[in-house]
Amino acid sequence: MKIKRSIFKLVLLLFIFTVSAHSIAYSQESKKASKSQKKAEKKKEKRIENQKKSELKGKKRHMKIQDKKTRKRMKKNKRKGSKYVGKRKKGLFK
Question: What is the pLDDT of residues 17-26, one digit of tens each?
Fold first, then answer.
């Protein structure tokens, strides 16, 4: 009877130990994963922001290089194009 109790206690103790060790191990990994995910997210946002800035700089530089008549024509075509963006007909095949 005493041997059965001691074996039962030992098995119970081992079970509790493995469950608690398992949960501790996974909780630490998730924290590390979330930190690395946050870093990756910040890096991605910064890269997207830099791409937008460089694109804007490129557009400004392109406009600056053109002569006055060309800039006027570009602005006129841009306004004309934006006027008809929403009024396009749907194609036959889609």
Answer: 776 766 665 6
Exposure string of 40-67, with b = 16+ CB inside 10 Å and e = fewer, is eeeeeeeeeeeeeeeeeeeeeeeeeeee
CB atoms near residue 68 (< 10 Å): 7
* Pairwise CA distance, residues 57 & 65, whole Å: 12
Please, which residues have CB within 8 angstroms of residue 71's CB and are 6 or more apart in sequence? 63
Where in the chain are the domains? Answer: 2-65
Q: Which residue has the tokens 């007909």?
A: 89
pLDDT tens string 41-92: 999 999 999 999 999 999 999 999 999 999 999 999 988 887 777 766 677 7
What pTM was computed for the model?
A: 0.47
